[in-house]
């Protein structure tokens, strides 16, 4: 897996996480507590965040991702 694909995968995860955060805010304002859409959106955001952290940790452990210091 090349570096640009790894970066694209992480950015895609971040975009979906922010999308679910925005959806949770929207449902919170629109539904006014009548449905569970806010809870579902925020639950998906937490699950995606945990999955992203686990994916990065596994990538570092297996050597697919090579961490580096600040500035390179």
TL;DR of this structure?
The protein is mainly α.
Q: How is this structure best described in words?
A:
The chain has 72 residues and is mostly helical. The protein has helices spanning 3-31, 37-62. Helix 1 runs antiparallel to helix 2. The longest helix is centred in the N-terminal third of the chain and has 29 residues, at 3-31. The two termini are 21 Å apart. The chain crosses the membrane at residues 6-30, 42-64. It holds the Pfam family DUF2909.
Main sheet specs: none
Fraction of residues in helix = over 70%
Order of helices and strands: HH
How many β-strands, per DSSP?
A: 0
Cα Rg: 16 Å
Average pLDDT works out at 91
Instruction: Give the strand content.
Output: under 5%
Distance between the termini: 21 Å
The number of distinct helices, counting runs of at least 4 residues, comes to 2
């Amino acid at each position: 897996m090349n570096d640009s694909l790894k970066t694209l995968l992480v950015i895609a995860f971040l975009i979906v996480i922010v999308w679910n955060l925005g959806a949770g805010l929207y449902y919170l304002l629109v539904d006014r507590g009548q449905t569970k859409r806010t809870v579902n959106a925020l639950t998906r955001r937490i699950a995606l965040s945990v999955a992203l952290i686990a994916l990065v940790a596994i990538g570092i452990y297996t050597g697919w991702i090579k961490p580096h210091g600040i500035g390179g």
